[in-house]
């Protein structure tokens, strides 16, 4: 039954990874605006410039 | 004799290509595209010139009309102090700035605003947050400036709000993020602890499991630490804060329950006597935080905390030694000379230096009629100059001026943490007392026979009585009510407003703009019967004038034919005259028209007389247009509440008002903003709970002082003063339903309380006997919580549907 302990440890590790991903997403502002991206993705425009710059500098 | 000229009627209606408004004629056009005004045409030309006509294909007619547009001067944005206040960040080369743009309303708006870099190469990129109606953009200082960016936005019809509101939303954002973290962690731990507790639930026993169970229990302890110390921390803080103020709020029994759960579980696991209740602990906190998230729904684009700084310009033109410079408004001192341009607001009480001015106090009084002032007159702050620019000398500091004084009132310094007599806090006081009585009696009962069992029973009572379901019923009921109100265009600041709304017993209305339609008026005719011929003559006369009154009159008369005028004269501020059909016709003010005797009575409002061949025949009067359904609302509300109407206007409308409100309604006239506030205060001193319904800055004090202040707005994204709720004017008719629904919500909360008490009773029967097993706790807690949540949301939805609110 020692294999159980390994399984538990591994499952916690995987779940913990998802938790960290969630916390990172919140911190990064991915839940700040839940509407605009849904519209933006439908625009037929290829020449979008790096948007990350805005969100990064906003955090400063 | 002149032949009647038949006016050619526009056979087909055309709408503006830019904004979709109906065009009066086809005069303004580019090819097959027609525009309602030159402003819209200009915007189209700019967009077209930059090859961005995609704007018009994403959404049909996405623009906002530019009819009211005036030329604005943004020179003040070159001032460094002003600049520094508006921008978020700069390193001297690249600057980031965030604007509020209330005009944003569709996908096309997002598209054009995110393509700003095509208009101005200095703008590197821009990003919209549609729900907050903000635009963040970066620009290169070398290539462009803040002023140019703002001018660019204004030129395509998206003038940002330029004021110095503090970064309130940022703070809000941070607290919201924290809640997400806490829920994420609590949810993660809850799931894992439950998984690891499963063997315990099933009482699974075989030769190998003993050791494993022990390990699982210790893993559970590790998992529960972040829940206890991080996710649950706000309940402890709130409980301590409450106790310091000698208040037993709902967080006190919750905290006691959490500590009992955690302490007992630690003891059981470490001593090896049991599995503990850590799964219930994590579940409890997860549910509670979810409830908090549900009730924290906010309308991000709306601002409920505005004061006069949101209305005032951020800079003024200062005149010194015949040189004009722009200075930030807070540098304005007594004795300075300032220039106020057309349509600008007068920031501080001043003396007029120019020879004359036309000041519109619509902002303060709600009545927009320009008042003529002459050299040496004192002009109070809050007025708007109409016409050319004027020169003023400031005589009072901004904060001490007539209008802004209102904000020095203590109503605006109210403690926001003031204890709320929320129903849940009233209940929790007795609830906590009862729990301690039961727990101690159980302890005493067992203490003499079995000490271990006594402690067991004592902690079990505290655990099972932890008012999870009780604490969830309020956020879910009120959170859902808030959403239902939102669907009906009634946006409230937070859920506490609903409880306050349920308790009111006195309603105070403002008049202008609140119970009357703002910007709309109706024309009444009194005098000799208006014959068809007179009708035609007057129409022919006013057709030649562009004065708003003439326009309105022309529409009112609705004459099909008009004749040619001869010797037409328009005297501004007085009236019109001409000869039509060889008859001399005059229309205008009393003095202009009358030849001496004028038997018509003096009435309030704008009155225009008309005479034919020197004989006064009658007059037209512009009166307020009361909102649709006002009569029903007045009658219905008067049944259950005392109703008053306070207005800055004179008594002229009294007779009219009485038609809408039944006997017993109090009418107060000539009320200054300060007096409105004092009136509310006097009602409150009679122990009345007041609901104030107003619209403008002149009601700001009263809105703030009242228990619930609701501001009515034609467009909720427009400025409205600090208030508890913003009601879109179309939903005014539902006001009665909102109040009664908030009362219903309160009843639903009480029923949910009873349900959760029943669960508590069932749990307590196990607890006092000392037989509460972790499995029972783990089942009872979620079941009670979920059933209360379901009851609260379903019943509010059902009732709302029945009453036509969904």
Number of domains of chain A: 1
Number of helices of chain A: 3
Helical proportion of chain A?
Answer: 55-70%
Largest interface: A-B, 34 and 41 residues
Oligomeric status of the shown chains? heterodimer
Structural class of chain A: mainly alpha
**Helix amount of chain B, in percent?**
40-55%
H-E order of chain A: HHH
Percent of residues in beta strands of chain B: 15-25%
Q: Number of folding domains of chain B?
A: 5
User: Proportion of β residues of chain A?
Assistant: under 5%
Structural class, judged by helices and strands of chain B? alpha+beta
Largest sheet of chain B: 7 strands, mixed
Distance between the termini of chain B: 64 Å
Rg measurement of chain B, Å? 33 Å
Unreliable runs of chain B, pLDDT <50, ≥5 residues?
Answer: 1-11
Choose one word for the global shape of chain B: elongated
* Total count of strands of chain B: 28
Q: End-to-end distance of chain A, in Å?
A: 51 Å
Uncertain stretches of 5 or more adjacent residues of chain A: 46-57
Strand order of the largest sheet of chain B: 16-28-27-26-17-24-25
Give a written overview of the molecule.
The complex is a heterodimer of chains A (60) and B (806). With 60 residues, chain A is mainly α. Chain A has one domain. Chain A contains 3 helices and no strands. Chain A is elongated. The model of chain A is unreliable at 46-57 (pLDDT under 50). The two termini of chain B are 64 Å apart. Chain B has 806 residues and is α+β, with helices and mostly antiparallel strands. Chain B has 5 domains: 75-162, Alpha-Beta Plaits, CATH 3.30.70; 171-299 and 422-477 and 744-802, no CATH class; 312-403, Calcium-transporting ATPase, cytoplasmic transduction domain A; 491-517 and 627-743, Rossmann fold; 518-626, Calcium-transporting ATPase, cytoplasmic domain N (3-Layer(aba) Sandwich). Helices cover 43% and strands 18% of the residues of chain B. In chain B, the strands form 6 sheets. Chain B has a 7-stranded mixed sheet, sandwiched between helices. In chain B, strands 8-7-9-15-10-13 form a 6-stranded antiparallel sheet, with no helix packed on it. Chain B contains 25 helices and 28 strands. The A-B interface holds A 1, 4-5, 8, 11-12, 15-16, 18-19, 22-23, 26-27, 31-36, 39-40, 42-43, 45, 49-51, 53-55, 57-58, 60 and B 58, 88-89, 94, 96, 98, 107, 110-111, 114-115, 117, 124-132, 136-138, 173, 177, 180-181, 184-185, 188, 191-192, 195-196, 208-209, 212, 215-216, 219.
């Amino acid at each position: 039954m020692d294999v159980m302990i390994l399984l538990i440890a591994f499952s916690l590790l995987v779940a913990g990874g998802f938790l960290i991903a969630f916390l990172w997403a919140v911190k990064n502002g991915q839940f700040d605006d839940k509407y605009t991206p849904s519209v933006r993705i439908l625009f037929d425009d290829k020449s979008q410039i790096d948007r990350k710059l805005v969100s990064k500098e906003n955090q400063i | 004799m002149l032949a009647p000229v038949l006016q050619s009627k526009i056979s087909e209606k055309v709408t503006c290509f830019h904004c979709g408004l109906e065009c009066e004629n086809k005069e303004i056009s580019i090819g097959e595209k027609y525009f309602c005004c030159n402003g819209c045409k200009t915007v189209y030309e700019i967009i077209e010139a930059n090859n961005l006509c995609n704007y018009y294909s994403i959404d049909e007619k996405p623009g906002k009309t530019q009819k009211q547009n005036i030329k604005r001067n943004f020179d003040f944005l070159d001032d460094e102090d002003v600049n520094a206040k508006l921008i978020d960040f700069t390193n001297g080369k690249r600057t980031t700035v965030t604007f509020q743009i209330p005009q944003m309303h569709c996908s096309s708006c997002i598209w054009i605003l995110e393509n700003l870099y095509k208009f101005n190469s200095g703008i590197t990129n821009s990003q919209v947050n549609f729900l907050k109606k903000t635009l963040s953009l970066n620009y290169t200082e070398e290539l462009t400036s803040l002023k140019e960016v703002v001018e660019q936005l204004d030129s395509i019809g998206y003038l940002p709000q330029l004021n110095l509101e503090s970064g309130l939303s940022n703070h809000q954002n941070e607290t919201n993020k924290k809640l997400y973290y806490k829920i994420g962690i609590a949810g993660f731990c809850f799931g894992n602890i439950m998984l690891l507790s499963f063997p315990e639930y099933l009482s699974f026993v075989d030769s190998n499991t003993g050791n494993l169970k022990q390990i699982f229990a210790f893993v559970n302890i590790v998992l529960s630490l972040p829940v206890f110390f991080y996710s649950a921390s706000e309940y402890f803080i709130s409980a301590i804060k409450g106790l310091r103020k000698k208040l037993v709020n709902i967080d006190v029994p919750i905290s006691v329950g959490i500590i009992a759960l955690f302490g007992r579980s630690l003891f059981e696991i470490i001593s090896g006597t049991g599995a503990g209740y850590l799964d219930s602990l994590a579940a409890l906190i997860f549910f509670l935080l979810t409830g908090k998230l549900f009730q924290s729904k906010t309308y991000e684009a709306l601002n409920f905390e505005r004061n006069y700084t949101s209305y005032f310009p951020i800079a003024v033109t200062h005149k010194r030694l015949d040189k004009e410079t722009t200075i930030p408004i807070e540098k304005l001192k007594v004795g300075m000379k300032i220039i106020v341009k057309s349509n600008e607001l007068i920031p501080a009480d001043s003396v007029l230096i120019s020879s004359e001015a036309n000041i519109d106090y619509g902002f303060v009084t709600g009545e927009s009629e320009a008042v003529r002032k002459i050299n040496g007159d004192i002009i109070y702050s809050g007025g708007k100059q109409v016409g050319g620019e004027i020169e003023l000398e400031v005589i009072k500091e901004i904060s001490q001026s007539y209008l802004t004084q209102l904000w020095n009132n203590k109503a605006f310094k109210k403690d926001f943490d003031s204890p709320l007599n929320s129903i849940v806090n009233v209940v929790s006081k007795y609830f906590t007392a009862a729990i301690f009585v039961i727990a101690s009696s159980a302890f005493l009962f067992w203490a003499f026979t079995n000490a271990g069992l006594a402690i067991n029973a004592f902690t079990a009572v505290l655990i099972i009585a932890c008012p999870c379901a009780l604490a969830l019923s309020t956020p879910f009921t009120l959170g859902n009510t808030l959403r239902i109100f939102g669907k009906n265009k009634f946006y409230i600041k937070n859920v506490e407003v609903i409880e306050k709304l349920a308790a009111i017993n006195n309603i105070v209305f403002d008049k202008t703009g609140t119970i009357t339609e703002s910007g709309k008026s109706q024309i009444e005719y009194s005098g000799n019967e208006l014959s068809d011929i007179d009708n035609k003559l007057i129409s022919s006369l006013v057709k030649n004038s562009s004065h708003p009154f003439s326009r309105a009159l022309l529409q009112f008369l609705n004459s099909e034919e008009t004749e040619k005028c001869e010797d037409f004269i328009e005297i501004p501020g007085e009236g019109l005259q001409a000869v039509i059909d060889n008859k001399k016709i005059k229309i205008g003010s009393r003095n202009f028209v009358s030849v001496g005797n004028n038997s018509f009575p003096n009435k309030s409002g704008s009155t225009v007389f008309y005479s034919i061949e020197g004989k006064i025949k009658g007059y037209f009067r512009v009166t307020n247009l009361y909102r649709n359904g006002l009569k029903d609302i007045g009658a219905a509300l008067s049944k259950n509440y005392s109703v008053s109407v306070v207005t800055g206007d004179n008594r002229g409308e009294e007779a009219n008002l009485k038609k809408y409100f039944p006997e017993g309604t109090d009418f107060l006239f000539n009320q200054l903003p300060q007096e409105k506030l004092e009136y509310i205060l006097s009602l409150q001193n009679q122990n009345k709970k007041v609901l104030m319904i107003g619209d403008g800055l002149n009601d700001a004090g009263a809105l703030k002082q009242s228990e619930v202040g609701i501001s009515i707005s034609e467009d909720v994204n427009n400025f409205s003063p600090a208030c508890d709720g913003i009601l879109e004017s179309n939903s005014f008719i539902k006001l009665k339903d909102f109040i009664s629904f908030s009362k219903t919500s309160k009843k639903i909360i009480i029923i949910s309380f009873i349900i959760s008490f029943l669960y508590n009773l069932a749990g307590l029967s196990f607890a006092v006997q000392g037989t509460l097993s972790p499995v029972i706790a783990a089942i009872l807690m979620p079941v009670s919580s979920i059933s209360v949540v379901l009851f609260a949301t379903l019943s509010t939805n059902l009732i709302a549907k029945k009453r036509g609110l969904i």
